[in-house]
Every structure is written in structure tokens, then in C-alpha cells.
Amino acid sequence: MTRQKVKMVYIENESSRKSTYKKRKSGILKKAYELATLCDVPIAVMIDSPYDLSPEMWPSREAVEHVVSEWNKLSVMEKTKKMVNQETFLQQRIFKSNESWKKMWKENKELEMKEVMFDCLSGKTSVTRTKKSDLRDFNCVIEQYLKDLNRRVEILKNHDSSSSSAADVATTTTHDINMPRFETGSSSAGFYDRIRDQIENSLNVKHNVKDLDLNKKQW
Amino acid sequence: MTRQKVKMVYIENESSRKSTYKKRKSGILKKAYELATLCDVPIAVMIDSPYDLSPEMWPSREAVEHVVSEWNKLSVMEKTKKMVNQETFLQQRIFKSNESWKKMWKENKELEMKEVMFDCLSGKTSVTRTKKSDLRDFNCVIEQYLKDLNRRVEILKNHDSSSSSAADVATTTTHDINMPRFETGSSSAGFYDRIRDQIENSLNVKHNVKDLDLNKKQW
DNA sequence: CGGACTATACTTAGGGG
DNA sequence: ACCCCTAAGTATAGTCC
Q1: Residue B216: which of A71, A204, A216 has the nearest Cβ?
Q2: Rg of chain B, C-alpha, whole Å
Q3: A66, A82, A98: which is the final residue of a domain?
Q4: Where is the MADS-box domain (chains A, B) (predicted)?
């Protein structure tokens, strides 16, 4: 009857192992949430469990990847600093390579986002059917865009230009993320087509990683 | 006197926040260790704390990155499967881009490894001064290389070639990871030079990411 | 198998040195 | 600041349904 202290060894019994896994997983995630809340610290937990269908990521895929990429950047910087002359070129190569895949990742992210947005616009999917974690990013981008848009409206207002309709602003914004203005429900005639064109254009962005332009080095 | 139930809100008081952080961080890491031990589940925890000098990674940088990359792979696969015709090209673009940075990452890993090995050989650093986590990778590569080498020795033995010394085998192996055979202590005359050449050659490997060869698509 | 329960083990807030 | 202590609060092993 008395619960005994569990030994820290692999639990052979399958069912009790799974039960323990479930209980403790939720325990850890709760603790992680608490630490994050109490101390406002970015924390990420990944559990690549064979018991769940997909690996558990907390608080979200994006957060986890963000932390990893930040860490990576730091690591590379540290290494770069420690370098001595003879090793510089090799480290730089690694650094540049890292930089380029980081850029590539960012571009992917944008493409994914645009796809979701396009789906929402075309009615293929609905915002309510979008994953919560994606929505967060989505929202973030929208807000960034709107801020940009408002800034531009301000500028045009000051110039007192007569041809500065909201739609024109949207298509001429310097910000590279293009999407509809959700708050204007009336002036959306032909808007769908414009968005489509914008997305099409954005897809022509070059995706090749730049030639790293490194020559063979003398040792 | 009586300890009260803490509210789940940010702790304003700096010192108690830090104290709580330290206690709870160690608590989480312990829990993570226990879950990993009891259930043999790959789990990774990252805490990008402003209180510690560097972000906390558990159990190790490699493990964390491995879990992330595995997850990424899975995610892409799932998405690819779910795709409908109209979206295929975009998804494929993401997929290919993902693939190429994965490849790039692998290449970086190899370059880093070679650098460590070269430093060890040249006496600039010692194996004992290498991080434990790096050593694990290091060892893995060495074993792979030796296995490859032995395979090749077998082949040459069967052909009864008279000029097949161990060194020749080493320089002609088809495996792209080149390093000395650590178990032969005697025949290492001029070996350092050979390794140097090999490393130099290996550095000429093309590192540009292939053109993804995607054309603008009709919607 | 998956919840719900509960006694016990563990964690940790708060306080003192 | 740090470590240590202890009681209060929490997690969870074992059990039942």
C-alpha cells in the first residue's frame, strides 16, 4: 500500500511506463509554463515521444526554432571570436553558410505565411481552421503590415496627394510583406486579384544561396 | 509565516524572481532527466535565460538540434502529403529549400569536425581538451571511416595487389571523410603532410546550394 | 485502455545565517 | 549574494473503476 520511492531506472513494464510518461510529460510542460510566466524567460521543451503521434513542442514550434537559431548565432559568434588567423577562412565559411540558411529559413517562413493568407482569402480554408501557433505569427505579420501601412498613409496625407487611395498605398508600400487590409470591408472590389498578383510576384524572389566566393586557402 | 500559494504572475521583485528562477530551472532539468531515464524518451530543454551566461541546453546542443531537425523533417513530410495540386509547387519549394539547408548543415558539421581533427593532429589542441559532446560525434566519424577503410583493405587483399600499403588505401578511399588511421603508430612518417593535403582537397568541395530550378507557376 | 482518486514523495517559497 | 532549512504546496505511483 505504501508508495515507495521509485528508482531512477528505465521502467520495463510497458503500461506503467506509458502512464508515467503521460503524467510526467504534463508535469514538465506545466513547470515550463510556470517558469516562463513567473520569470519571463524564453524556454522551449521538445519531447520526441514514441507515445504521442507527433513530437511535443512547447510553447510552439516557432518559439523552439527561434531559441535554437538564436543559440546557433551566438555559438558561431563565439567561435568566430576565438579564431586564430590560420583558421579564419574555415570558420568564416561556416559562418556564412549558417547565415545563408538562416536567411533561407526566414524566406520559407514568409512563403508559408503567404500561403496560409492566400488560402484564407480564396476561401479554401478559414482562419478558424488555422493552427493556433500559426495564427500568432499571422497576427504578428498583419500588425507589422498595418503599422507600415499607417505610416505610409501619414506620409501621403502630409503630402496632400489626391490620388492616394488606400489600395494604392497597399500596393506601393515598401514593406515586402503584402496582404489585404482586413479592416476595410467595402473597398475590396478586385482586391483578391491584386493580392494574387502580389503573391505571384513575390514568388519570383531569388532563392538561390549566394555563391560564398571562397577561394582555396594556403595552409 | 505561512507560505502562501504563489500566483502565476510575473514576479516583480528581482531578487526573489532570480531565486525562483534558479530553483525552478534545476527542478525542470531534473524532471527532464527523470523522464528521459524512466521512459527512454528523447527530450530537449532550452532556457534562454538572462540570468545565466549562456542559454541552458539539455541534454546537449547536439541532442536539441537533432530533435529539432527530426521534427522539421517530419513536419515537411506531413505537409507534403496534405498538399493539393494547386499548392504543390510552393510546398515543394519549401521542401527543397529545407533539404538544402539540411545538407548545408551536415557539411558544416563535417567541416567543423575536420577542423577539430586537424587541430588534434597538429598538436594545437588535444583530444582531452575537446568538448565531450564533440568527442561523441568525432568518435562516430572515426568509426565510420575505419569501417570503410577495412572494407577497402579487404577488397585490395582479395585482388592481391602488391602495392597496397595501408597509407595508399587511406589516400584512395572513396569515402569523403579523410583522416589518419590511429591504430598504426609506426607508419606515420609523412602522414601529417598527407592529411594536410587531404583536408586541403576536401575544402574545394562545392558549397553553393544548387539552383532550385523552379519556374514561375500559373495559378 | 484512460480517467479519477489519494497517500506519499518531491518541490520550493520564505526565512535565517 | 549564497546556502540551508522546513513547512506548504504540488506531482505522481499505485489503485480502482
Answers
A1: A204
A2: 25
A3: A82
A4: 1-47
Strand D–CB B31 distance below 7 A: yes
Q: What is the pLDDT along chain B (219 residues), one digit of tens a residue?
A: 678 899 989 999 999 999 999 999 989 988 998 999 999 888 888 887 778 766 667 766 666 666 666 666 655 555 444 444 344 555 555 566 566 666 666 665 566 565 655 555 555 555 555 554 455 555 555 556 556 666 767 777 776 555 544 444 444 444 444 444 444 443 444 444 444 444 344 444 433 333 333 333 333
Query: What is the domain count for chain A?
Result: 2
Note whether B105 contacts A101, CB cutoff 8 Å.
Answer: yes
* B19 φ, ψ (degrees, to nearest 5): -60, -45
Say how far apart CA A145 and CA A151 lie, in whole Å. Answer: 10
Query: What whole-number distance in Å separates Cα of residue A138 and Cα of residue A134?
Result: 6
The answer to whether residue A164 is domain-embedded is: yes
Taking 3-state DSSP, the helix, strand and coil percentages for chain A, each rounded to the nearest 5, stand at 60, 5, 35
Please check whether strand C approaches the CB of B42 to within 7 Å.
no
Residues A91/A80, Cβ–Cβ less than 8 Å? yes
Under DSSP, the state recorded for A209 is P
Range of the domain at A146: 87-203
Co-location of A94 and A18 in the same domain: no
Nearest alpha carbon to residue B199 among A96, A218, A214, A81: A218
| A43-47/A56-58 β-pairing | antiparallel
Do B164 and B156 form a contact (C-beta atoms < 8 A)?
Answer: yes
